[in-house]
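re: ur question from yesterday

yeah so i grabbed the chain u mentioned. its 421 aa long if i counted rite. heres the sequnce exactly as i have it in my notes:
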Amino acid sequence: MTFTSPATPAPPTAPTTGPSTTSPSGSSGHLPAHLDADFYGFQDVLTPREQEVALAVREFMEREVRPIADDYWERAECPVHLFKPFAQVGSVGAAWAETARFENSAVFRGWVGMELARVDSSFCTFIGVSSGLAMSSIGLGGSAEQRQQWLPPMAAGDVIGAFGLTEPLAGSDTAKGLRTTATRHGDTWVLDGAKRWIGNATFADVVVVWAKDTADDQVKGFLVRRGTPGFTATKIERKQSLRIVQNADIVLDGVEVAEADRLQGIDSFKDVAKVLRVTRDGVSWQSLGTMIGAYEAAVAYTRQREQFGHPIARYQLIQDKLATALANVTASLAVCVRVSQLQDAGTQRDAHAAMAKSFVTTRMRETVALCREACGGNGITLDAGVARFFADAEAVYTFEGTRDMNNLIVGREITGHAAFV
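ran it thru and got these C-alpha cells back, copy pasting raw so excuse formatting
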C-alpha cells in the first residue's frame, strides 16, 4: 500500500509584530534548557535523552509554529504541512515499540504534549488526535499485522489519523448511547451512522470509527480509509475555540470495511476505555501547556506594558495574579507527572486519570482568566498573546470527559456507588 499525506497550501507570511512572535524568553534565538514556568524543576524527572528531545520539540514549536499560529487560528485553517516535519523530531508515535527510536516514559510523552500546547493548543490537538487517539487505538486494539501496517507510516508522518467516537446524540453517554452500527456480511462490514466533533477528519488518511455490532450489541473498531464510498466529512464552521483544529461532522452511509480492517483486539467498550484512559492523561498535559502559554504571554506583556510611569508587572495586583497562575501551573504539573508515573508503573486506575483531567482543566480555566485579566483590555486581542489560549481552554476543558463526568468517576471510587444516571 502507498501512503500519502494530503497536499496543503504553503504557510502564510508570519506576522512581524506583537509579543507572540518571539519565544517567552524574549528572544527568537537559543532557548533556555528549562522553562521558567517549571518552578520546581520537574523536567529533571526526564532522562537526559528525553530532555534532549523535549528541547528539540520546544525549538520546533518556537521556530515553525509560533510565528504562524495566530494567523492560522484567525483563519481557522490547519498547518497540515508541518505534520511530517514535526514527526522527524522523533516524538510522533513515541508510545509504541514498533515505532519509537528509544524507550519513552509516559511522563515524557505528556511533556511533549505540554510543549506543543504552550505554543498552540490547537496544534497539540492536531498532533494528539493522530499520534495519541488514532495510534493508541491501533496500538492497543490492533493485531500484530495491523500495528506493523499502520504504526510505522503514522510515526513517520506519512499517514495522518483521526478518531471517530463522539456522535451528534452521544457524548458523555457514549458507552451505552452509541448509535452508529456495524453489520457483518461475510468478510465485509457495513457501517451506518454519524459522528461529530471528529478532529482531522476532513484530511485524515485513516479514521478509526467506533460502531455497535448489530449481532451482539458490542462496540467494535474499524479503520476507514480516506475516499471510501459512503464516507463524508464536513468541517464544522463558526467555532470560537481550537479554531486550527478541523473538526468534522461525519456521515457513514453504507460504508463497506473489510474484516481485515476491523481492529482485531477490540471486543467491547471496555477496550475503547483502555484507549481513553491512556489519552486522558494527555489532555491533562495539554491543559497544563495551555495555562503555561497564557502565563508566559502574560508575564511578557506585563513587563513591557507601562501605566502610571512603570511597567504594570511592578504593581501588587498584577503580581498576585501572576503568582496565583504560577501556583496553579506548579500544582498541575505535579499532578500530571504523578499520574503519568502511575501509568508507567502499571498501577494507574480510571479514577487517577479522571481526577487529573478534572483538576488540571479546572486550574487551567482559572489561570487563563487571570492571565487575560492581567493584560487588561489588550488581553482580548491576539497581539497580547493570551486571547488564543483563553479561547482554546474552553474546548480542552470539555473534551475527553467533562469535569462533572470525571468527578463522578472519582466519586464512584470514593463511595463505591455509581451516580452517572
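noticed a couple things. The first helix runs from residue 48 to 75. also The chain is about 45% helix and 15% strand.
anyway ttyl
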